[in-house]
Structures are given as structure tokens and as C-alpha cells.
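Example record for the data management plan.
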Amino acid sequence: MSGANVRFASKVQMEGEGAMRRPFSKSSAWAAAAGALLAVLIFAAPIARAQGQGQDKSAPMSQVQRLNRAPVNKEILRVQLPRPKVETLPNGLTLILQEDHKLPTIAFTMWIRPGQLADPADLPGLASSTADMLTEGTERRTSAQIAEEVAKLGATLDASSRFGVSYTSVNASGLINSTPQILDLMSDVVLHPAFPASELEKYKQREEAGLEARLAHPNFLGQQAFRRVLYGDTPMSITSAIKESLERLTAEDLKRFHDKHFVPGNTILGVTGDFKSVEMQAMLEKYFGAWKGAGEAAVSYPAATPQATKITLVDRPASVQTYIVGGNRGIRRVDPEYYGLVVMNQVEGGGAQARLFLDLREEHSLTYGSYSRFNADIYPGDWFAFAPVRTTVTGDAMERFVSEFKRINNEPVPQSELDDAHRAIIANFALSLEQPAQLLNDWLTVQHFGLPMDYWDKYPDRIAAIDAAGVQAAAKKFVDLEHMQWVAVGDRKQIQDALAKYGPVTVIDVTGKAEN
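Corresponding structural encoding:
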């Protein structure tokens, strides 16, 4: 396997594939092992079919049998990731240097905190706009010149600041022999953006059109309302710029945000590729060594007071679907409950094999898909389940959500289902290690959140250690029906009565204003 020393605690016997008896060192061996891990996700037997009057009807999910005929390794994946070289330049810029000599390529990833969490109340979306405008012109290059140079190099260069995330990301990549030119471009857009007025006007027009399009999508409206319910009047509640903030946005706003937060003391720069670390560090000092600025003090985010269950209905007249979201506050990335939440989420809504999908889609045909997700950052993130359903079955969908939430709270997860969840999580992690960019991202995560250097080495063991009691504990804390916050986007006239059975309903329009 590229870059990582990986082995299983015992031999893996696979019919037709032979046995693996040594540490992984080849991509083909790695793919075979990952295939064995993922095999558990496949139902070995089809659902029984009942033939009647020309129609094919599925049996209830309770009658589905998992025969476990696929060969599955019972042991825990052992990983020891190669340690990157971590250095701090005199100006405070942290470097993560990860050599990978398989291909003549280079990739840079820069995380600059605090990202969108620094958006001022009167200019939501400022961090995102600042990042988007970095490549639209510098003190010595126009937007067209930047795009032309990137294209000639066959390189990539982009920047973004996602809502709810505690850093802005700047990324660049290309062939190793283009490294000086790529760094010249990257350092120019990060250190010397000009925010030209002409490009800013074009950007604002594009963003206003994009905002209008987003406001027509129920899933965007649902997530927007859900974050507002959870986080109130704080930067964590922001999911988009608004029309008024875009109209007010000026180049001076962008420059002020950039000058305050885009400093080396706030920044981690990761590099992966075909280089020697000593030479790369010297090259990075050449392009970023003159950058000045101390890091900002960390912000403390206290835990929120739990809110009683309520339902926010986003009225979307004549909607043929209802987009349902249900969830609550979660955890910080460094919290010890992280592993339990990972496993619980996998069981409940982590994919097409999880309970919500099997219940709402496979057994009751209420949706094309139902899942759950969670976010964990430097502040307590969120856990939520969601599904788009037909308007006429809104009440049925709510009933199934509540049923599955009660089940994960009250019934210990069967060992076979728990084993499936463990293997799915560990297999996904294992596959990600084959990607140098993902490995680099893992090390940026360690550095950004202050995790221990052996964090990823121990990750599979810690996931596997979560038992049925651990899943139930996570469910009781994060799938809390007494404090569940629901959002439903749909036609008020058709769904309000069905929703009212599950809690008090507050109705708002698509802009967030209360309706009578």
C-alpha cells in the first residue's frame, strides 16, 4: 500500500484469491483486502419475491436473511502511517511535508483558520466571498492571466471557505517540474489579492443568481432552517450569503477580512508529492517566508442548553415533496464520544445498508433515500437524519423516523449488524489510505485539531471497540427525542396537521420570516 504499513492481525483466507500472509506493499494486494472488508456490505441472498397478479412484491425487511456467505475477515486492521515531517517557519507558518515518490506530481493544501466562523453578523458569507475572489486578480496578475498560467501548466488552483467549517482551504497541484511556477501563483493569490472592483461586480452577479437558484431547492432551505434552529444568531448558523449582504459587499470588506485572518500564524500548509523534504522546505521559505502575522487566539464554544422538541415548517406552497430533517447539536472533533457517534451513525443512516434507508425506502417506499450525517469541528457540530418524501406520505415518514430513533435508543444493536458497521467504517478508512491527498488531509486534521500523532494508527481499534452499549449511549445523547429539532420544507396546507402530531409547529416562509 502506498505510504502506509498496513497488516491484518491474522491471515485473510479468500476463495479464488489465495491467502494474504504479509504486510501490504502493493496496490493490488491492498485492493483485494479492501474488497474482502467491503464484501460484508452485500446481501448474500436476494429478497424473497411473491408473485401475484402480475406484480412483484418485496417481502418485509424483517424477513431478509443475511447469509454471510461472502468471505469476511474477523480481525482488526492494523495501520502505522508514515509520519510526515512537521516544521514551523520563523513566521509561524506550519508545514506538513509528506513525500510520495510513485508519480512525478505535487499537491499543496493550505488551511487558514478561522474561516467562515469569523463572518460578521452584518456580512454573512464574507469568508466565502474572500476565498472565491482570491483567484480573480492580484497586484501583478489579472484574473485572466491567472487562469491562463494555470491552464498552460496543466495545474489546478482553487480556494474556498465552506459554511460551518473552521478554516479556508487553498489548493494547488501539478507536475513536480512545475513546482516553482505553481508556488509563485499560489503565494501570489494568498499573499497579494487585489480584489478588483470589476471582478467583484461580476462575482456578486453570479452569486446573486446562485442564491436565487439555491432558494428554490428544498434541501438547501431545510439545511438553512435547521442550522438557524440549532445555532441561533451565531456564525455557526450561516449557510449562505444573503441578497442584502451581497449588495453591501465591497473590496474594502474583502481586504479587511483578508488582512486580519490570512496570516502565517493561522495557517497550516501541507505538501505531498515527489520531492525531498529539505529541498521543499527551503522552497516554501522562499515563497512564504516573508509573510507576516501572528496567529489568533482560539475561541471557546460552550455547550448549548438543550431545547424542547419543536418543528419548524418552511412553507413552500404547491410543493410536491416534503424535505424532512431531524437532529440536534453534536460534538467537537476532539471529544471522546466521536468514535461512538461514528459507529451509531453508520448503523442508523450511514448508507444504503443502514436502518433509515432500509426502512423508509426498501420496506415502506416513502423516499428514494434516507440517511444521517454529522459534523464535528472546533465547536459542537450537529447530527441529523434527512429524507425527501412525497407530500402525501409526510406523516408516514415522520412515523418511521420516530420509530427508528426509538429503536436505536431502546434496543441493543445485534452483534452481526454491529460487525457490519465496524467493517464498513474501517474498510472505507482503509481505502482512503491509498490516496496521497487523503493521507495529507488526515495529517492536516491532526495538526488543525491538535490530535495525537498516533491518532490514525489507533483509529481502527477504537472504532472496533465500540460495542452495542456504546452505540446505545451515543444514541441516547444525540438521537434524543425529548429535544429533537425537526425541520420540514413543504406545502403548509397539506402537511401542517401531520407534523403537529410530533410537536409544536412554527411556520416560516422561504426567507425565514414567520407566517401567521
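Summary line stored alongside the record: Residues 197-214 form the longest helix (18 residues).
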